[in-house]
Amino acid sequence: MNPTHAKPELEARANMVQMARLRVEIAQSRWEEAKEQARAARRSRKEAKAIARRAKKQAKEAKAELAEAQSFLAEVESKLASPPPASAKARKGRPAPANPAAAASTTASAIPPLDSDSQTATVPPQPETSAEEPAKEEPRGGLGKWR
Predict the structure, then answer these.
(1) Max CA-CA distance within the chain?
(2) Entry pTM
(3) Cα dist from 76 to 49, 67, 83, whole Å
(4) 84/90 Cα distance (integer angstroms)
(5) Phi and psi dihedrals of 139, rounded to 5?
(6) 3-class secondary-structure state, position 53
(7) What string of pLDDT tens digits covers the 147 residues of the chain?
(8) What is the sign, positive or negative, of the torsion defined by CA atoms of 88, 92, 95, 101?
(9) Is the four-CA dihedral 32, 38, 39, 41 of positive or negative sign?
(10) Are 89 and 82 in contact, with CB atoms under 8 Å apart?
């Protein structure tokens, strides 16, 4: 072989190696990009599932709240539709009023009249009641009350 022919042959081999390395780099960058896209797609699917689960849970809670509100409305409407009882129950510690109209007048007199100048209620002063002093607690020792 002639040394003049060896040089172009070596250059051709070097170019082939360089071209092969370039192809490897391009293929590797495409593979990494595809891998990143697949990871992002999985993440977005996972986020979408979480959002869907959260929305489903909120819808379920809203449905339960609606059912509760509807039952409360039906209960209130049924109470309003039914006539009031004929006799009022006596409250604990107080006798039942003999005349319901008299009872209404006593509650009306308990409400203070409005002051005409400021449109606020004038409340008469209340007599002071004697309050007992609270029982004094004995100081505890280091171990508390273990006697």
Answers:
(1) 138
(2) 0.40
(3) 41, 14, 13
(4) 15
(5) -65, 140
(6) helix
(7) 455 566 888 889 999 999 999 999 999 999 999 999 999 999 999 999 999 999 999 999 999 999 999 999 999 999 998 876 666 565 676 666 666 555 555 555 555 555 555 555 555 556 555 555 656 666 555 555 555
(8) negative
(9) positive
(10) no
- The SS3 call for residue 144 is coil
DSSP per residue over 91-140, as a string? Answer: PTTSPPPS-HHHHHHHHHHHSPPBPTTT--B--PPPPPPPPPPPPPPPPP
Residue whose C-alpha is closest to residue 112's, from 126, 100, 102, 99: 126
Q: Count the neighbouring beta carbons within 10 Å of the beta carbon of residue 103.
A: 13
CA 31 to chain centre: 45
Residue type, 38: A
